[in-house]
Amino acid sequence: MNAEIQQIWVYLSTTPLLWLTLTLIAYQFGIWLFGKLGCPPLLNPVLTAVIILVVLLKVCGVDYQTYFRGAQFIHFLLGPATVSLAIPLYREIEIIRKSFVQIIITLAVGSTTAIISAVGIVWALGGEKIILLSVAPKSVTTPIAMGISEQIGGLPSLTAVVVVLTGITGAVGGDFVLNRLRINDDKARGMALGVASHGIGTAHAIQKSRVAGAFSALAMALNGLFTALLLPVLVHFMQ
After folding, report:
1. CB count, 10 Å around CB of 236?
2. Taking the model in full, what pTM does it have?
């Protein structure tokens, strides 16, 4: 009986549908746990799902390539999900229009700070050039960040990991930092989360308020564009 169960598991573990299903279940469990315990930042649904899946992959001895064959459909949906963020932007277009100058200033300062801080920390720790280039676009949403990394000579795979960690860190700790700084304006909080922690931070901002979600979505999109234009120029200048 045990041998038969083992054979079934070996078959299922190589089936793409299994890991797609487990990914969705892990995230749904994360959402349930997040709401059940009063929405504590440390139990961000994305972080919970990541921890569950990492443990499952380790216990089952399944490599990432096998997992990704099933989860790549979710990866594909990153594009449409990003485009759908235009909906909260449209709903708050009047507020956004009135805050145009503040948005541009915040974007320029935030994007530049994100790049310089990431590169500066890695440089101070003695990181190699390829690591510097890989972490530079850490605050940009994953598809854009990987494209930028490849263009400037970084490692797209490393960039993807750093981007996800940045997003989770911002979603988990963003509220704490903003509360400590006594920043209560939804527009400012949304811009901060969008610039610093891209899509994951934006998802968190949308949970807080419509205005914060709209400004975070705008900040994420503009930060991707700004970084894609600015970073290659900075890299060329540094070289």
Report:
1. 9
2. 0.75
